[in-house]
Please model this.
Amino acid sequence: MEPNPGDDPAPTAALLCSLLSLGVPPGFGHQMFELYRLQTAALRRRRRREMMEREWRRRQYLRRRRAFLLSSIAAALSLLSTTSRLVWVRARRPGQNLWATAEAFDDEEWKAQFRVSRVTFDYLLDLIGPAIKRRRTNYRVPIEPRRRLAITLWWFARSGEYRSIADMFDVGIATVCMIVRQVSSAIVERLFHRFVSLPSGPRLDDTLQAFKDRCYPQCAGAIGGTHIPIAPPRDNPDHYLNKSGWHSVILQAVVDHNLCFTDVYAGWPGSSSSAAVLSSSDLYLKAEDRPDGYLFPRERSLLSEGVEIPVHLIGDTSFPLKPWLMKGYSEEQQLSPERRRFTYTLTSARSVVDAAFTRLKGRWRCLLKKSDIDISMMPRVVAACCVLHNICEVRGDSFLPEWNIDMAPSESYLRQPDTESSEGDTYCTAEVIRDTITYNLLTILQY
Model:
């Protein structure tokens, strides 16, 4: 029997002292009673807490047991019965669509449809097939990687409506959108760094020699930009409106002598200048963060009249002048014969950029028309097309003449905005390097 806290503790304490035959005064017994009462209360709270914890563990056990039983029953039923989902599963029927007859295409027809040869298609499938393969479920057999890649290449080549592509490949409309996203991401994640990189070692030697053969020395590539049409985005649409009056994102790329992209930076709004896009790119940070301010190894530099001429890129007048980035002189000024010759030579060597962009957009025409893909996905789509372009160029997958479209504005294809000269170039180290090349061009080419 537990004591009542409301009772007078003195008689109880005296009784305890007498029962325990302790020769202590009643005041001390009162203290003993208080200690006993506190310990009893603490014991009562501890027991109550243990009972609550025991009840909570019991409920958790019953909940897990119930979930396990339900999942076991569901698994057993899935093995014993066939489930039909007529509402959200599209029945794939063998029929007369593009994919049903694709395997019977000859090499010419295959390339006309998918923009790559059958050999290159199989090569791509070997590279990214494991990444785009999906596991089989109890409801249906997944779409095979070969068809997934074919859907994506067909969309890249034409940027058609999802509904028409769905009918041609006998898949759902939402499935087309999902496949384009997944395959584009797989191409970028698995192949970008393998096929898109600045030249180094023997590749750099070949690039320098190739541009030297074009009468321009110490050049490791040409940089340029182009606008990719997009549908007006929901957020900040005015930021994507370029000077020609249509919405776009900018692709900045470095191109070598083989018309291959060695650096790709895409996604900036169309209202941005070339200098602004460059200053935010990894290429710019890579060069400016180096102590010597060069983009390529300094030991590859040449010395002319006491001036060090580094390996550099070349661009048009919309880019800033840097020791690692040369550009021609502005035509607004009266140019000397030497400066006019330098500007003409640089512009001629830089033409590889325009040729590469023409081939890129001619092969993958999704970059020529406004597509309905989300704006956040456009950088990956552009990068994936650049990777595929490089693979085709490296493997010798020829560019057909009929793909070389006319870039004049029309209902489908839009005119590129005019470039504006970059302001703020002052007399600096880059200016000294450019003047040295200008007035010693023939001598430097003989090195």
Observations:
- The longest strand covers residues 219-229.
- The mean pLDDT is 86.
- The beta strands are 219-229, 248-255, 261-269, 302-304, 307-309, 312-315, 325-327.
- The first helix runs from residue 9 to 19.
